[in-house]
Design brief:
Blueprint lengths: L2 H24 L2 E5 L2 E4 L2 H7 L7 E2 L19 H12 L4 H6 L1 H15 L6 E3 H17 L14 H18 L1 H9 L3 H7 L1 H20 L9 H6 L10 H14 L2 H16 L1 H12 L11 H4 L3 H13 L9 E2 L5 E3 L2 E3 L4 E4 L1 H4 L25 H6 L13 H18 E5 L10 E3 L3 E3 L5 E6 L17
Parallel strand pairs: 2-8
Antiparallel strand pairs: 1-2, 3-5, 4-12, 5-8, 6-7, 9-12, 10-11
The protein binds protoporphyrin IX containing FE (HEM).
The site of protoporphyrin IX containing FE (HEM) has 23 residues, from helix 12, helix 13 and helix 19.
């Protein structure tokens, strides 16, 4: 278990569930700190997380980023809009489809990685983590981290974990952070230098990329799209802005996807009936000639959609409060005057568990998404694993592509079972900013699937994004 997992365990146990319990007890408006109020009703989602919102990201985001800040932490509306427009092009559906062959190489590596381990417990959290880092490394740095190929954890990942621990300490215990920063102890200094090492890694990778492929490489990755992108005045990003932004994208696009895949496969291991339903659905897809599905083949499969939606509902990778700052003059929310600069937030862990909107909220029930007519407007609003509005996930299309292609490819080939070390307790969902299982691992056993499965009714299907 990495120190990141230890830290998440220490911090996450309290916040996520405590806020959830407070809402269950006191209703949709709860004061959770001297200057912070948490909400849980859908009317407030529109206030805080819409395209027109005047609630900007709270100051806490300042501590989450390297400098110069990337899109994720930009708090100024104009600056953010401009960066978002510039980057959106790279994330368009057609550009993403262009990257498929690169992603496919890594899914093939995943199959090769798993093959010799069939019938034995494999830590799927580490496996999916390495896979998702390899993919975003390939797409945004022009080179894979080779996590699935190397026995040791790549240096970048270790430094990234350290960076998150530091960001967490800075956000929650700033005084302790500044005291630690002054300590002349070699190990502590090394720990603090992790952020700089990551930036250097990004810089080196970027320079290698330009030296190898040039500035208009035509390579089917996303870095080339970021390099040639221009802002409204026609200016490109500087090299420093590119490799810092790209490092942020690597963070944003890796642990999110791997945590989702981990919980998804854990849920499937606990619910073999849904494995069978999904495999039956996958058997109806004509292609998959070389073992890896194309996105086009699996983009609109109702059971696959329903299973992923339900995993994202129960275990969203970013389950916690997304804090925003009340604009000047203050605002009335739920009939209460909230003074300006008060931090206001919602956590999707709670909106996803509203019992009136999602009956039996703790149960894994993919069927709630299967009949499109039964998916209510309230479900669509309260379901926000990728957040909503102008600050919603920029990588949502990439995330969906990875989740669908990887889940379909693995599930068609393999059955998944729980290893004895994997229990509800070991998988207890802890949040730091991103979520993790309490044990820091998820051991599952994969075995070859029979080529024919009993077919079951796959339902009508919907896709909620
Ligand atoms: C299952 C996978 C993912 C989930 C659940 C997820 C979730 C989220 C959430 C909840 C936010 C809002 C955070 C906030 O307001 O503080 C966000 C923002 C963001 N995500 Fe994702 N994400 C996923 C995958 C990705 C991927 C693959 C990328 C691409 C590299 C990505 C890039 C971003 C970026 C750039 C932002 C900031 C957008 C902005 O502020 O304009 N995400 N994501």
């Amino acid at each position: 278990m990495s120190c990141y997992h230890h830290f998440a365990k220490f911090q996450g146990r309290y916040l996520l569930r405590t806020i959830h319990q407070l809402h269950s007890r006191y209703g949709p408006t709860v004061r959770v700190g001297p200057h912070e109020v948490s909400f849980s009703n859908q009317e407030i989602i529109k206030e805080l997380y819409s395209y027109q919102t005047s609630f900007m990201k709270a100051p806490v985001y300042d501590g989450m980023s390297m400098r110069p800040v990337g899109i994720f932490s930009m708090r100024d509306k104009k600056e953010h809009n401009q960066r978002r427009r510039l980057l959106s092009h790279a994330f368009s559906q057609s550009n993403l489809l262009d990257t498929e062959p690169l992603i496919k190489e890594h899914v093939n590596e995943l199959l090769a990685f798993i093959k010799p381990k069939l019938g034995r417990p494999v830590d799927m959290l580490t496996t999916f983590r390495r896979l998702s880092f390899d993919i975003v490394g390939e797409l945004f740095l022009g080179q894979s981290f080779n996590g699935l190929k190397s026995p040791a954890t790549p240096r970048f990942l270790i430094d990234l974990d350290s960076h998150f621990v530091l960001a967490g300490i800075k956000m929650n215990f700033p005084l302790i952070y500044y005291i630690l920063e002054l300590l002349p102890i070699a190990a502590v200094r090394h720990f603090f230098a992790s952020t700089e090492r990551n930036r250097q890694y990004g810089k080196d990778a970027f320079e290698n990329y330009i030296a190898q492929y040039g500035r208009n490489s035509g390579r089917r990755d996303l870095l080339t799209k970021v390099v040639v992108a221009k802002d409204d005045e026609g200016a490109p990003l500087t090299d420093l802005e590119i490799y810092t932004e790209v490092a942020h994208l690597v963070h944003a696009g890796s642990d999110t996807t791997s945590t989702t895949l981990t919980y998804l496969f854990w849920l499937l291991a606990k619910h073999p009936e849904w494995q069978s339903r999904l495999r039956a659905e996958l058997m109806t897809v004509p292609s998959c000639t070389d073992g890896v599905f194309t996105y086009k083949e699996v983009i609109a499969l109702p059971v696959l959609d329903a299973i992923i939606n339900e995993a994202l509902r129960l275990y969203p990778a970013a389950p916690a409060s997304l804090p925003r700052e009340t604009p000047s003059g203050g605002r009335n929310l739920n009939g209460i005057f909230i003074p300006e600069k008060t931090v206001v937030s919602m956590q999707c862990y709670t909106t996803h568990r509203h019992p009136d909107v999602f009956p039996d909220p703790e149960e894994f029930l993919p069927e709630r998404w299967l009949d499109e007519k039964a998916v209510t407007p309230e479900m669509r609003t309260m379901f926000m694993p990728f957040s909503a509005g102008s600050r919603a996930c920029l990588g949502i299309n990439l995330a969906w592509m990875e989740l669908k292609v990887i889940t379909a490819t693995l599930l068609k080939a393999y059955k998944v079972q729980l290893a004895s070390s994997t229990t509800d307790e070991s998988m207890l969902f802890l949040d730091h900013f991103l979520a993790l299982p309490k044990s820091g691992r998820c051991d599952l056993i994969l075995t070859k699937a029979e080529s024919t499965e009993p077919t079951t009714n796959s339902g009508l299907g919907t896709q909620v994004k």
